[in-house]
Write a structure and sequence with these properties.
The chain is mainly β. The chain is built from no helices and eleven strands. Strand 5 (45-50) and strand 6 (56-58) form a beta hairpin.
Amino acid sequence: VQLQAFGGGLVQAGDSLRLSCTASGRTLSSYTTGWFRQAPGKQRVLAARISSIGTTTYADFVKGRFTISGDNAKNTVYLQMNSLKPEDTAVYYCYAVRPFKPLSWGQGTQVTVSS
């Protein structure tokens, strides 16, 4: 599956952004999909994911602020990010994976939150 991520940008603390990850080649409904993020000089870490049956998981640092959702009709996964903080500044990468299959990455999208 090929993934394209959209929606990053420069915002102020407290603002919102919505990231989109659109798939081509296969339908996402059978995948676990999600978003990792990588801040400068730090490792890539999982922010949120949604399973093929709709179960969501969030990292503690985004709980209550970020919401992941999927639209099967559009073959797209979204990450709604509210109450953004400067520490949310990172490159955000979407991914998709199925059991026993290689993980697919989208290109990163930069999110910068100014204080």
